[in-house]
Amino acid sequence: MPSIVPAPRWSVKEKMSKRFRQCSSVSVRLRYLIVFNLWNGRGAREIEPILKVHNTTVYRVAQRFRDYGEASLWDGREDNGAEKLSENYLGMLDTVVRSRPQDHGWRRPTWTRELLIETMVRKTGVRIHVTTMSRALAMIKARRGKPRPTVKCPWHPAVKTRRLNELRTLVGTLSRHDALVYEDEVDIHLNPKIGLDWMGLGQQKEAVTPGKNEKRYLAGALDVRTGEIHWVEAHKKDSWLFFDLLKKLTIVYARAKRIHVILDN
Questions:
Q1: Within a domain: residue 163?
Q2: Residue 144 above 50 pLDDT?
């Protein structure tokens, strides 16, 4: 192996050692170390455990160094042209990630890396690899999370706007003799939800639960003036739960001339 990489003059070694100390690239420094070890008379099998590289890597670096000299130690990708993950590209990617695929003509409701790549090709003309997209997403601090499910309003936008304006007017012009509340229902699961936990090697922790999941149903009303919540509880979610809440409101606001209840559906 030393014959494949003949030792140069002392001045050449000094210059290469200086460039090695100034280099910040891990991969380039590793190639320098391979060459330095070969100059010191070590073989590929000896270098393998020292630098934790495969012996075929040592042979490849040695062959390229013999053919092209010190230039072969540097990453050839530096000459591939402009960096694809430019500031403009990352800014556009951040805008795309914050939107929905349907906004760009796709049928999927959520983004994949492949879909982001195709969308960015349309917008910038730049195509990158999937692993590069992962790096780009990390650079803009994007994260994978579970989207919050929502239900689209079935009303026409004009109808929805008109109804919301009516409610805002009602709240803004509410008489002091009237009461107004926002009403909604909620399901409560008494069986706790088990989340992720840290465990030791070979350990399987246990979480004590009631066993059978039990539910309770609440209906509540929020007073727009005071912020106070009035609620009732039931074992079943049916019309009687809503009627029980209305009955309680008539008791709480017994002196009100009119009780306005704003609710969905």
A1: no
A2: yes
Q: Give me the residues paired with residue 215 across strands.
A: 189
CATH value at residue 230: 3.30.420.10
pLDDT in tens, 25-80: 888 889 999 989 888 888 888 898 999 889 888 888 888 888 878 878 876 554 45
What's the DSSP call for residue 98? T
Please name which of 138, 16, 134, 13 lies closest in space to residue 72, comparing C-alpha atoms.
Answer: 16
Instruction: Give the separation between CA 149 and CA 151, rounded to whole angstroms.
Output: 7
Is residue 144 in a domain? no
What φ, ψ does residue 185 adopt, rounded to 5°? -115, 160
pTM equals: 0.45
In this structure, how many other beta carbons lie within 10 angstroms of the beta carbon of residue 97? 15
Q: Are residues 179 and 257 in the same domain?
A: yes
Q: Apex CA 146: angle with CA 142 and CA 149, to 5°? A: 125
Query: What are 205-240's pLDDT values in tens digits?
Result: 777 776 677 788 999 999 999 999 999 999 888 889
Residue 25, domain extent: 10-78
In a domain, 248, yes or no: yes
Answer yes or no: is 24 within a domain: yes
Spatial CA neighbour of 119 closest among 94, 143, 144, 142? 94
Nearest-angstrom CA–CA distance, 195 and 184? 27
How many domains does the chain fold into?
3
Q: Where would I find the H helices in the chain?
A: 10-22, 26-39, 44-51, 55-68, 87-97, 113-124, 130-139, 157-172, 239-252
d(CA 261, CA 214): 29
Measured distance CA(105)–CA(263) in Å, rounded: 35
